[in-house]
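Regression test case RT-17, inverse folding.

Input:
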C-alpha cells in the first residue's frame, strides 16, 4: 500500500544512486580517446561500473540496451527484489523525515 513518503522527492544530495555529471561523462570520453586507460580503470576512477563506462562511450549500444529492457522488462522484474528495494527506500525517506531533512510536503508529478 502506498505511503506518504512514496510521493516525496529526494534532493540530488539525498539521492543515493550514483550519477555522473555531463562534465564527468565528457572527461571519460576524452580519456578514452587518448587511449591511455582501460574501461575498468575509468570505472574505478569515477566509482561506476565498467558497463556504464561502455554505455557512455557507445551511445548506440546504450540505445539498444534501453530498448531491449523496455521490450522485455518482465524478464528482468523480480517482485521480491522490488519489494525489498521499495521497503529500503521508504525506510531511508522516513529516517530523513525524522531528522527533518525531508519535508512532509507532497509534490505532485
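Golden output:
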Amino acid at each position: 500500500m502506498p505511503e506518504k513518503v512514496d510521493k516525496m522527492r529526494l534532493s540530488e544530495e539525498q539521492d543515493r544512486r550514483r550519477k555522473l555529471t555531463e562534465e564527468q561523462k565528457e572527461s571519460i570520453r576524452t580519456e578514452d580517446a587518448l587511449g591511455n586507460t582501460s574501461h575498468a580503470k575509468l570505472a574505478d576512477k569515477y566509482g561506476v561500473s565498467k558497463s556504464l563506462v561502455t554505455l557512455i562511450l557507445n551511445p548506440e549500444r546504450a540505445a539498444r540496451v534501453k530498448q531491449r529492457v523496455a521490450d522485455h522488462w518482465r524478464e528482468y522484474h523480480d517482485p521480491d527484489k522490488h519489494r525489498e528495494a521499495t521497503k529500503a527506500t521508504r525506510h531511508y525517506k522516513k529516517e530523513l523525515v525524522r531528522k527533518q531533512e525531508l519535508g512532509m510536503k507532497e509534490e505532485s508529478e
